[in-house]
Design goal:
Blueprint lengths: L1 E8 L1 H5 L3 H10 L3 E8 L3 H7 L9 H8 L4 E9 L1 H9 L12 H5 L8 E3 L3 H11 L8
Antiparallel strand pairs: 1-3, 1-4, 2-3
The protein binds adenosine-3',5'-cyclic-monophosphate (CMP).
């Protein structure tokens, strides 16, 4: 079934200028890009987006990192998008990510891990809606 998932190319990857390579890998894996924008998250957006992690010890560090530079936010659609995109990006920690995955190729560490991916079908919908009005999406 067609699902939505949200990719964020994080500040570490944008700084390294690997946005194009990451987008190409996503397209090669047959995802449809239905929305894309480059932006700098405000602190308030970062805090709200990662609210589910607010009790975690790394929450402050995570928000500071995500607002430290521009990101590219991409709404994706595909059958089984959530699972397929998580396989494409690999484990959170690049040291544990499979060969050929986006994080293995481009991430620096567990915190500077190149890309975000939605962790459930429900969150895929919510996270796309966090960044895009329905009228901005090209379905
Ligand atoms: P992401 O998929 O964007 O969602 C939550 C993020 O928290 C995750 O990627 C990591 O970048 C970050 N994260 C998870 N665990 C840790 C950790 N132990 N230390 C720092 N950041 C973490």
């Amino acid at each position: 079934m067609s699902e939505r998932t949200l990719c964020i190319i994080k500040p570490d990857a944008v700084k390294k200028n690997v946005q194009g390579s990451i987008i190409q890998k996503i397209l090669d894996s047959k995802f449809k890009i239905i929305g894309m924008k480059m932006m700098k998250l405000t602190e308030s957006m970062g805090r709200r987006f990662y609210e589910v992690h607010k009790e975690r010890p790394f929450y402050g560090e995570l928000v500071s990192f995500m607002i430290s530079g521009p990101v590219v936010v991409i709404a994706l659609e595909k059958d089984n998008a959530v699972t397929d995109y998580r396989s494409l990006i690999g484990a959170t920690d690049p040291a544990e990510a499979a060969a050929g995955t986006i994080r293995k190729l481009f991430a620096n560490s567990k915190s500077e891990n190149a890309v975000h991916g939605s962790d459930s079908v429900e969150n895929g919908k919510t996270e796309v809606a966090f960044f895009f009005a329905e009228s901005e999406l090209n379905t």
